[in-house]
Structure formats: structure tokens, C-alpha cells
Amino acid sequence: MRDQPVPHPIDEQGFAQFLQRAEPEVRRLLRRLCTSHADADDILQETLAKVWRLRAGFDPQQNGTGWLLQAAFRCFCDHRQRLRREPRTAGSDDLVAPECQDDLELRDEVRHRLGRLAPLERELLVGFHAHGHSLRELAARHCLPLNTVKSHLQRARARLQQEHHAQD
Amino acid sequence: MHKTEFQRRWHEHLDARRDPLDDQELCEQLAADPELLQTMATQRAQLFALPRVIARTEPRAMPRRPRQLLHRGALVALTAGLAVVVATVAAAWLWPAAAPTLPPTRGILAASLRETLAPAGAAQSYTIHHFGAPTPNGRLSTYETRSERR
């Protein structure tokens, strides 16, 4: 995003409609980045306010949604840095949001795509990320070199997201 | 940053159980590439959700310690009991107890004679009762009738 907006005529109503159309996708990204849905919604509002202030710099010829996602991610990174400088205390409003529909959808996605991985890849992925086994433990269990286990794990992670993109 | 280098560092963080988004350079790369951002954000969220998915769907596939089926004390008690049983059986087999005394199964223990009155000139008849050895159900008795010329 450019810091100095290039002044050119902007259809504010059209821009507002564009934001409304793109909002679900941006919200989805932020809810996957954040541990709390409340945080995700806060960052979304901050993003929309920021891009509205900088709407003059919006180029309709470019990928508007991508531009909006980039803005949202930068707001998310700023939020993370603020959290590190000011750690939260227990009992604050920023509690982990209760399980909502998006979380259930994400878990359904994961459950479905796990079943489509190769058995060894699935075992390594679950063993490492769900059961907390170390790479060395997995290598010993499966009688594989450590680097081979790492390769399988990387492939399993990539295939998990590739399945996601295949359905997008 | 080249895509290959990005992936190498991303997985290196995950293998070390670090959040890749703590790497400033990786974040800059993601901020510059919206498509890569969506892909990696989804992967990260999926991996973070994996423990919750597995906890709900399946038990631990690789238990860290084998479970003990029996408590140690119970195991000792069971072993001791088995030893006693084995010893008892062996003793009974090696040193069988003396057979109990049973009453004689043969011979007449008692007898009685009763004269049977018969017509004159007939043979003298008499009956002999035999009282045999006692049996579990009582005492066995038999009788025989004999006759002889007067």
C-alpha cells in the first residue's frame, strides 16, 4: 500500500459496496490468523477504517480484494506487536471466543482432508502436531532418517492446504 | 525472499514448534503476496486446529508409556496365591493321605437258627439267617432254609 494516496476521482459509494462484498473474505482470513474472534472482528473494523481513510489510493484496476487482505494482515501484525508490548491480564475482555461456526467449519475441513492424506503422512502429521511427539521419536518409531521424517511432514502440511485450494 | 527459501524457513519454524508469524521477514513476504498469505494463514490455522480435531475423533495412536494391567501389589499377591495352590496340589500328589478304615466286606458277623416245625416223619427243616457286613445303606442279611431227615 502506498503511504501517499494518489488523488484521483473515487466513487465512494462504489468503494463502500466493494468493501461490503470483500468483508466476508477478509473476516475469514482474520479469524484464521487470530486466536480470538473478538480480536479478529476488532482488527477487521480497524482495517476498514484505515482503508476508508486511504481510499484515494485505491486503484480499481488492481486486485482490490488482495489489496484489502494485505491491509488486514498489516493491521493484524500491528495488533500482535501491541499485544507483546502490553500483555493481557486474566479476566480481560479478550478471552478466547467460544467455538463458533467458523471454527467448526475449519475443524470439518481438517478432519476431511486428513482422511485423504497418505497413511504415513497422516501418522506423522498427527503424531507431531496433535500428540506432541518429537521428530526424533517419530523417526525412531517409523525407522526413518530424521530428514526423511521432516520431508514427509512438510509434504503433509502442503497437501493439507492444497486440498483446501482445490476446493476454492 | 525466494519462494523456496520462504517455505524452508516456514517449515523450520513449525518443526521447532515456533509460530512462523513471529518471523518478521516471513511476515513481510506474506504482506506482499495476498495469495501466499491466504494459503499460509489457512495452513497455520489447520495445524493449530489439529489437536482439537484429533482429541475429538480418535484416541492417542502412540501411547508414551505402556499401561500396567495390574498393580504391583496385586501382581505379588497373585503370584503368591498361585504358588500356594501349586504346592498344595504337588503335596497331595506326592503324599496321598491314608485310606480311611472301611468295615470288612466279607464274612459272616452273626447268625441265628430257628427250628421250623414240620410234620412228623418229615425232614427236619431249619432256617439260618446270615447277617453280613454293614453297607453304606444298612446291614446286609440273607437266610437259607435247610432240611434233614430226622
The helix/strand class of chain A is mainly alpha
- From the spread of the alpha carbons, the general shape of chain A counts as elongated
Total strand segments of chain B? 3
**How much helix is in the residues of chain A?**
55-70%
Helix and strand sequence of chain B: HHHHEEE
Tell me the greatest interface: A-B, 40 and 34 residues
Query: Which range does the strand content of chain B fall in?
Result: 15-25%
How many angstroms separate the termini of chain B? 146 Å
Strand order of the largest sheet of chain B: 1-2-3
Helix count of chain A? 7
Order of helices and strands of chain A: HHHHHHH
> End-to-end distance of chain A, in Å?
26 Å
Number of helices of chain B: 4
The biggest sheet of chain B, with number of strands, parallel, antiparallel or mixed sense and barrel status, is: 3 strands, antiparallel
> Which word captures the global form of chain B?
rod-shaped
Compute the average pLDDT of chain A. 83
Structural commentary:
The complex is a heterodimer of chains A (168) and B (150). Helix content of chain A is 70%, strand content 0%. By secondary structure, chain A is mostly helical. In chain B, helix 2 (24-32) crosses helix 3 (34-57). Chain B has 150 residues and is α+β, with helices and mostly antiparallel strands. In chain B, strand 1 and strand 2 form a beta hairpin. Chain B is rod-shaped and about 140 Å long. The longest helix of chain B is centred in the first third of the chain and has 24 residues, at 34-57. In chain B, strands 1-2-3 form a 3-stranded antiparallel β-sheet, with no helix packed on it. Chain B has helices spanning 3-15, 24-32, 34-57, 72-94; strands at 110-116, 124-135, 138-148. In chain B, 46% of the residues lie in helices and 20% in strands. The interface between A and B is large, with 40 and 34 residues.
